[in-house]
Amino acid sequence: MNFDTDDNELEPIGWDAIDGALRRIYCDREPKHFGTILPMSLGGNAPLQGISVYKNLAPQPHYHYVTYGFSELYEKETDDPEFSGYGFELTFRLACSLDAPEDPPVWPLNFLQNLARYVFSSGNIFDERHHLPFNGPIAMNEVTDITAGFFFLDPELDVIDTPNGQVKFLQLVGLATDEYDLVQKGYFRPIAARVTALTPLAITDIYRVSILDNPAVLAAITSVDPQSQQNQVFGTLAQWREVDGRLEIEIGATVVSQLKTMINSVLQQDKPVIVYGKNTAVLFTVDESLKWGVDDTSLEVTLPPESIIRLGQSLQPIRGEYTISDFPAIVLKVIPVDIKDGAGNIISTIG
């Protein structure tokens, strides 16, 4: 989805709708607004056109970040009348001290721009109850175990109707590493319920310890059977090609750990495992024999159960080619993925 606009000529009706939603909470308070000098729609590197931040002292001191740019900020351009743009904006509530400065930390600005860069480049959108790993700490220069997160409706902003369609305000809530491990194993609801109850408005404290450090909490969560486990992983690369009867599949190194977990658990429940890339998808399913089929945007690969489990065991988040001895026609290539900061600079490479 691409919102090409000349901001000087179009009415900011979508922007005004977001401002109106914020005024219902903050009245005439002016936020710290961080505008993008050259947005992606005009050839720049930043997908979002701006992020507003409010410092709140109640019910607990925190900074409230709100994006502008996932929805249509100016006149309607997309064909779907129900939703404005991607149909959402992101929010994030970061815990701070009572005497913290009015100027908020800038790393969440870069982090939110990175999430936007993923959405704009892949076409994969976020929604309530979606969860994702961050491929590292949420803040690179902080000592924190918050390495993943999930989305739920911002408890104050919720959903608004705009002249361009509906906009959900999806609040990102941080998860500790072992909390996310349990989420992937089917315990999303009890983890999410306990994490959101830690603070008012589900404020993220990046210095908190995991709720699972309490043995009683871990025992209570795992004492019941897991619910339906996640069977989808979202990356930036999922592509393939057929060469002389050989199928070569390429995936990014960032999805390998999740894919291994899913292969070992979800497939045993007769559910497909799906890896999403940029408007593409690779599905892995189980049957008695090898086969694959391709349409315009997806590939479905079927393997015997013991073969796909061996594939999961051999996969590593390291550049290379991975095969199954009894099916050498299938090659899974793991491609390194660059992790970038909000300015688009490479700060690390996975794989």
UniProtKB/TrEMBL annotation:
Pfam families (UniProt xref): SUFU
Start and end residues of each Suppressor of fused-like domain: 45-208
Gene Ontology CC terms: cytoplasm
Organism field: Blastopirellula marina
Protein's name according to its UniProt entry: Branched-chain alpha-keto acid dehydrogenase subunit E2
Signal peptide start-end: none
UniProt lineage: Bacteria, Pseudomonadati, Planctomycetota, Planctomycetia, Pirellulales
